[in-house]
Specification:
The chain is an alpha+beta fold and 476 residues long. 40% of the residues lie in helices and 18% in strands. Strands 8, 9, 10, 12 and 14 form a 5-stranded antiparallel β-sheet that branches.
C-alpha cells in the first residue's frame, strides 16, 4: 500500500429504496463487501490459523491407526474411532462433557479478548478466507474486482467469473467429500467415487455440505456473521470494561483529515487519523471501526494491520487502532486477571482434567441387565424359585475376551446356564439369556437385590458389576 489517501469504500451499485416509501425502514439492499488484502502481524496469524485448521481437517481423514482410519465415526456399526480410543453410544456423556468444556472455553476467551474465535478459528471465517484468496487470484485486487463487477458482460468477464466459480465449487465439493470421509472410510469413498459407485446417502451429503460451503463462504460471507450467527448478538453479555477489544483511539485520531506526509498534524489542527479509509476497506464485514465497537466486528484485527502500516508511512506511532480495553481508553488501570477469568480458568482446568481422567479410567465393558417382565417368578420341578434375565454384554475393547459370569447377594443362589464362561469378540454386543435359582426358604422379602459380575479371564481388571431385582414368595 503506497498511497495512504486511498479512495473511500466502493460497493456495487444496488438500487436504494426511495425516501419516504417506507422501504428504507424495513429493508436495506445488500451491498457486496470487497475486503482489501492486508499484510501484517495479525494477517499472518490468521493465515497460520487457516493453514493449521484446514490442514487438520483435510489431513486427519487420511491418517490410519491400528489398522483403521484414525478418526472415523462409523454410524452403522455404532463405533467411533478417535486415534487409539473407540467410543460407543454408551459413551455419549463424554461428548456432552466435551461440549460443556468448549462452551466454557468460548466464554473464557470472549471475556479475556473478545471475539478471538470469530476472527481466527470459526469455520465461517476460515473457509471465507480461502474463498477470498481464490477470488483475488482469479479476479485481481479489490479495485480490479469492483471494476470487473461494474463492467458489462464480455467474454473475458464471463470466463473470469466462470473460472472463479468453478474453483469455488470444486473446493466446496472436496470439502463435502472430506466431511463425509469422517463417516465413511475416506479411502473406500475415494474408490467408490472414481468408479462412480457412491451410495445415495454419501452422494447426498457430499453435495449438501459442498453446497453449504459454497453458499456460506462464497456468497453469504459476512451476512452469516451479521444476521445468522447468534454469537454476535449475545457476545456483549460476556464483555466487561477489562475485556480486550479492537478500538479506535478517538482522542488521538480526531479531528481526522488528509494531509501530506511532512505536515505536523498538531500545527494543522488535525489528529493522527489521515482518513484514508483503509481500515474500512480491509474489514470483512464492511464496518468502520472508528464509529466505535459494533456487534458486526468479528475481531480479525485486519484494521489494526492496515492502520499500523499507514502510521509507519506517516512516521506516527502505531496503535491508533489497537487491542485495548474500555478502562485503558478511559485512562484507568486494566485488570486482566479478574474474578470471572479466574473462575473460568479453575472450572475449565477441573473439567478438562476430569475428562482426561474419566477417559483414562474408562472400562471398555458394558453389562446391561433386562429382567423378564412376562412373569414375576416361576417355580422349578425341584421346588426352587427361578427368575429369568437377558444380559447384554458389550465388549468395547479392540480384542476378544472370554468372561466369567457370577452372581452374589443371596445365600445359595445359582446360575442356570451351560457354562459360566462367555466369549465375546471385539466390538460385539452379545445377548445372553440366564436364569437365577434359589431355595425360597432363604427369602425374607418379596423383592431382593442381587449382583451380576462379569470378569475377563485374561484380564481380571476388566470387570463390570451390575445390580438386578430377584422376585419370589416369602415363606413364613
Amino acid at each position: 500500500m503506497t498511497d495512504v489517501q486511498a479512495p473511500p469504500t466502493q460497493t456495487s451499485s444496488s438500487p436504494e429504496p426511495q425516501p419516504g416509501s417506507g422501504m428504507d425502514e424495513m429493508y436495506a439492499s445488500h451491498k457486496k463487501v470487497y475486503p482489501r488484502e492486508v499484510h501484517g502481524t495479525f494477517a499472518r496469524l490468521r493465515t497460520l490459523g487457516v493453514v493449521v485448521l484446514l490442514g487438520l481437517f483435510y489431513g486427519t481423514a487420511w491418517l490410519t491407526w491400528d489398522g483403521h482410519q484414525a478418526v472415523l465415526f462409523d454410524l452403522p456399526a455404532r463405533k467411533f474411532y478417535i486415534f487409539g480410543l473407540t467410543f460407543w453410544p454408551q459413551d455419549f456423556f463424554y461428548f456432552a462433557w466435551l461440549l460443556v468444556i468448549a462452551a466454557l472455553s468460548l466464554f473464557f476467551f470472549t471475556a479475556l479478548a473478545g471475539r478471538l474465535w470469530c476472527g481466527y478459528a470459526c469455520p465461517q471465517t476460515v473457509w471465507t478466507e480461502v474463498f477470498l484468496w481464490i477470488e483475488r487470484k482469479v479476479e485481481g485486487s479489490r479495485n480490479q474486482q469492483i471494476k470487473l463487477d461494474k463492467s458489462d458482460l464480455t467474454p473475458v468477464k464471463f470466463r473470469t467469473k466462470a473460472l472463479k466459480h468453478f474453483i469455488w465449487i470444486s473446493f466446496a465439493l472436496f470439502t463435502g467429500f472430506t466431511f463425509v470421509g469422517y463417516f465413511t472410510p475416506i479411502r473406500d469413498l475415494t474408490v467408490e467415487s472414481m468408479n462412480f459407485n457412491l451410495g445415495p446417502w454419501e452422494t447426498f451429503w457430499v453435495f449438501f455440505y459442498g453446497f453449504a460451503t459454497y453458499g456460506n463462504a462464497g456468497w453469504l460471507r459476512e451476512q452469516v456473521c451479521i444476521y445468522m450467527c447468534p454469537y454476535a448478538r449475545f457476545q456483549s453479555a460476556m464483555f466487561d470494561k477489562d475485556t480486550l477489544v479492537i478500538s479506535y483511539d478517538e482522542r488521538r485520531g480526531e479531528p481526522r483529515g488528509s494531509r501530506k506526509r511532512n505536515v505536523d498534524p498538531a500545527s494543522a489542527g488535525l489528529g493522527d487519523c489521515v482518513d484514508c479509509t483503509l481500515c474500512v476497506q480491509v474489514c470483512p464485514t464492511g464496518i468502520d471501526i472508528r464509529d466505535g465497537l459494533q456487534y458486526q466486528c468479528i475481531g480479525c484485527a485486519a484494521c489494526i494491520d492496515a492502520c499500523d502500516d499507514v502510521m509507519d508511512k506517516m512516521g506516527y506511532a502505531r496503535g491508533l487502532i489497537r487491542y485495548t480495553t474500555e478502562n485503558a481508553m478511559a485512562g484507568l488501570k486494566t485488570h486482566l486477571l479478574r474474578p470471572r477469568i479466574i473462575l473460568y480458568s479453575i472450572v475449565l482446568a477441573a473439567l478438562s482434567i476430569g475428562l482426561v481422567y474419566a477417559i483414562s479410567q474408562r472400562m471398555p465393558l458394558e453389562l446391561d441387565i433386562i429382567r423378564d417382565r412376562n412373569s414375576l417368578y416361576r417355580e422349578t420341578p425341584d421346588g426352587l424359585v427361578e427368575n429369568v434375565y437377558t444380559l447384554k454384554l458389550i465388549n468395547m475393547d479392540e480384542q476378544a475376551h472370554t468372561f466369567k459370569l457370577s452372581t452374589s447377594g443371596l445365600e445359595g443362589m445359582s446360575l442356570a446356564m451351560e457354562s459360566p464362561l462367555v466369549e465375546v469378540p471385539a466390538g460385539v454386543v452379545r445377548n445372553l439369556p440366564v436364569s437365577v435359582r434359589i431355595d425360597p426358604v432363604v427369602l425374607d422379602r418379596t423383592a431382593n437385590t442381587i449382583e451380576f459380575t462379569l470378569q475377563a479371564v485374561d484380564d481380571p481388571a476388566l470387570t463390570r458389576t451390575e445390580t438386578a431385582r430377584f422376585l419370589g414368595p416369602v415363606i413364613r
